[in-house]
Amino acid sequence: MTPLELSQVRSVAPVLLMTLTQGLSLGWSSPAVGKLRAGEGSFAPTLDEISWIVSFFSLGILAGSLVGSAVFARAGRRTTLMLGPVLLASCSAITFLSSSAQPLYLARLLGGAGHGVGVSFASIYVAEVSETAMRGRLILWTNLQIMAGPLISYAVGPLLSYRLLALVPLLTASASLFLALGSGWMQETPFYLASKGRADQALAALRALRAGKKDEEIRAELAAIQKTVKQQASAGSGSLREVFADPVAKKAACLCLFVTGSFAMLGITTVMVFTQQIVEVAGAPLSPAVCSVLLVAVNIAAVLGSMPVVERLGRRTILSGSALGNAASLATLAGFFVARDVLGADVSGVHWLPLACLVSYMASTGMGVVTIPHVLTSELLPQRAKASVAPLSGALVAISAFVLHKSFFIVGRALGFAAPFTFFAAYNLGYSVFVASLVPETKGKTLAQVQEMLAASTADDKKKRN
């Protein structure tokens, strides 16, 4: 690793640990709920209490996105992101101490808030501190940690007691805070500092982030950042009203809100939260615990496999293909449930099919859906729009996830489990068509070049309408 690459990785390291903590907290639900239902926890919740324990995490994401938005524009990216480990550590501590459902509701709400901060702002921070050649890979690594967290939770869940499992996220949250506050590695972003008129601090941050580069190259990059910030500042403060009044910012915002805000609607949060329960309903040939580890491992392998090609094939191609693969896998799974539960067919000869569909789904999801939307959001949104649009996207995910998680088993028991998976398959198909048709390609472009491309595209659209 070159000094230039190392300087950027060091600044992003606390964020990587924070997103790992997000994944650990997200993945806690599946093994912990299993322990609670088996009487291995500190209390025995009802099924309704379990549904609320799971769903409060989604409500917390909404709160974290909105609170983080207020801090993001005023106190900076670095300060905002450090709210994440604090909230996630609080979730871990309260979970360890809880002996009834009500404290656990609070814990999951705080954990969701920490997750909301990370989901809304981690990719933006990484994009603003990294250079073009490193940006895509670092954002992918950031999102990879979110997937690694559930894998660790699923793997160690059977080995740890309920209370010890609750403490695992506390370790990584503490390490994240130490690296951010104690090591001096984590820099504030030059974009934020330039937007506040702190040119000297922006230059110092760039020098720390661009180790090995010549000073004239660093000053040229700062000049480009200041030019972009000045152009965007002249367009307004970045409130949602001003963003949607500007045709270029409006186009970027609408694209990002759909691409990123659809995360739960694509089915991934439901599958992650209810992995073991879905495997039980489908009657997979392996135990739910083994299937959970297998599915997350496949997802991580797919994310790793996408890294070498993300800059070669481009964001749009990978994301559209990923959603199309999701649609095929989920449609096949829905067909299995129709054959078994509606038509009464003998499916013993294909009892392996549901697990194969879930493996295929997690593989195609890992290739693009769990990573590329965050890359696109960090690249497409103009600087002034990030503080208002990113949390709105997180809010859309939180609200849709809450509704889907709360209703998944209700709909499954009332209409059959083919119904929710048919919905997810149809949404993935529409998502794939939307991305292929309307999302611009950003590979190999600086953030300033992306904004110029959007401006030219918006001007062309206006000419066509006239």
TrEMBL record:
GO terms for cellular component: plasma membrane. Keywords: Cell membrane, Membrane, Sugar transport, Transmembrane, Transmembrane helix, Transport. Its main location: membrane. It comes from the Eukaryota. The chain crosses the membrane at residues 50-73, 80-99, 105-126, 138-156, 162-181, 252-274, 286-305, 317-339, 351-376, 388-411, 417-439. Residues 1-443 form the Major facilitator superfamily (MFS) profile domain. InterPro entries: MFS_dom, MFS_sugar_transport-like, MFS_trans_sf, MFS_Trehalose_Transporter, Sugar_transporter_CS. Pfam families: Sugar_tr. It is found in: Cell membrane. This is Facilitated trehalose transporter Tret1-2 homolog.
